[in-house]
Amino acid sequence: MNMATPIERPDQMLGALRDKLGAAAVLIGTDVPARNCNDWSASLPQAPLAVIRPIDAQGVADAILTCRRAHLPFVPQGGLTGLCRGASPEPGWVAISLERMTGIEEIDRASMTMTVKAGTPLEMIQKAADEAGFFFPLDLGSRGSCAIGGNLSTNAGGNRVIRYGMTRELVLGLEVVLPDGTVITNLNKLMKNNAGYDLKHLFIGSEGTLGVITRVVLKLFPKPRSTMAALCALKDYAAVIELLSAARSGLGPLLSAFEVMWPDYWDVITTRAGVKPPVVAGDSLYVLVEAQGTDESLDAPRFQSWLEELMERGLLVDAAVAQSLAQTQGFWRVRDICAEFGQVLGPHISYDIGLAVARMDEFVGRCKAALAEGIAGCESVYYGHIGDGNLHLVSWVAGLSVEQQPKDEMDAIIYGLVREMGGSVSAEHGIGTLKKKWLGHARSDAEIALMRTLKAALDPDHLLNPGKIF
């Protein structure tokens, strides 16, 4: 595909697009909002040349064609809650924001699907499903801000992957605008549809580098009628693995979350964040187990007896069982308070990695020692979803600003160990620009070459979110 020779200046083209889409749809220069200059990463904000805010797929196509004629790089934006600069612009770029493309278009009760616009916040989708008598299981700490299009673009994970899978497993159909402005509409509702390539998987997890997602068909599930939660203390990681096995076999499909917190995490939240520990404190590892079922009269006693059996076996040092929704939410606050680490710990660097479940504790011990030995004053804490192979950690040197944190040295130690142990440098947050230097630690040269081939086929002029991932 060859670029047509530009016949107008970019400002003229953007002005013409504003005349077509409306003044509220095209913000230029000093009218560009600060929110469109960065995602939630701590990187330096960069103001785009313009922000285009379409209301439908045709508006997105018009925006793309304008950028192509002016040869302007462009980046799609949703809720901007990413942590890897995947949706962040560079100077001279145009941001195509889907913030005005919000709303639930349809809930199909028979097929148990929901069709939504890509800019719709995740929490709005959760509430709409709940009000309709269904359940949408994707859940993230940024639920009130993140947009479903961004969730798809990064193949978001979250708290319930162990039961429902990543975002990829929750999508049936897509509408997407290609880098040449072509609108592909396949709002499929069928569970079984093997008519050729399943093209939606090209775009899910591609971080906005292959196309702009504009509408989505999501899978819904029956609403849970019972939720049980327990916060457990265990003596060591071997006991954690045994508990995970017991939860999978004893709770079966009821198991919906398995969150593990190492002693250093527990120490931070109880001594610095002021969390009152619901179970005995010490050198234990801590696990939040959640189960969801369909009959409270049967599920709650089953969950209680399962825990009592584990206590009798001596597997648990201590355990607290939630007796109400408020207590369940309190248990989750213990795990979700990591979102407040900026206030609790001060400036720090967050990491999101994937590892074999059996080797996570080995990684924690080796990584913590390597950071402390290799970087003067470096501290780190560890926690994660574990049941789905996802470990999170934060590291920092006290007294330093975010810009002063020795991130390059931290990256080299952490990602070097990830590569040695056969893991992934990104379990659920994506690559963006902040991790692309380390992509080769998790993907082979042949895999990266194929990624480049796909990118070149769909975006030969490299105008759609260029320089991201690889």
Describe this structure as you would to a colleague:
By secondary structure, the chain is of the alpha+beta class. The chain folds into 4 domains: about 10-100, 2-Layer Sandwich (Uridine Diphospho-n-acetylenolpyruvylglucosamine Reductase, domain 2), CATH 3.30.43.10; about 105-220, Uridine Diphospho-n-acetylenolpyruvylglucosamine Reductase, domain 3 (2-Layer Sandwich), CATH 3.30.465.10; about 225-340, Alpha-Beta Plaits (2-Layer Sandwich), CATH 3.30.70.2190; about 345-450, Alpha-Beta Plaits (2-Layer Sandwich). Helices cover about 30% and strands about 20% of the residues. The chain contains 14 helices and 18 strands. The protein is globular and about 75 Å long.
List the helices and strands and how they pair.
Layout: H1 10-21, E1 26-28, E2 50-52, H2 57-70, E3 74-77, E4 94-97, E5 104-108, E6 113-117, H3 122-131, E7 134-135, H4 148-153, H5 161-164, E8 171-177, E9 183-186, H6 200-203, E10 212-219, E11 221-222, E12 226-234, H7 237-251, E13 255-261, H8 263-271, E14 285-293, H9 296-312, E15 318-321, H10 325-336, H11 341-344, E16 349-354, H12 360-374, E17 378-384, E18 390-397, H13 407-420, H14 445-458
Parallel strand pairs: 2-4, 3-4
Antiparallel strand pairs: 1-2, 5-6, 6-10, 7-11, 8-9, 8-10, 12-14, 12-15, 13-14, 13-17, 16-18, 17-18
Helix share bin: 25-40%
Distance N terminus to C terminus? Answer: 22 Å
Largest beta sheet, briefly?
7 strands, antiparallel
CATH topology of the largest domain: Uridine Diphospho-n-acetylenolpyruvylglucosamine Reductase, domain 3
- What is the total number of structural domains? 4
Q: Give the CATH architecture of the largest domain.
A: 2-Layer Sandwich
Secondary structure: number of strands = 18
Q: Tell me, what's the shape?
A: globular
Global structural class: alpha+beta
Radius of gyration: 23 Å
The tally of helices reads 14
Unreliable sequence segments: 3-7
Average pLDDT figure: 94
- Major sheet: arrangement of strands: 15-12-14-13-17-18-16
The CATH C-level name of the largest domain is: Alpha Beta
Q: What fraction of residues sit in β-strands?
A: 15-25%
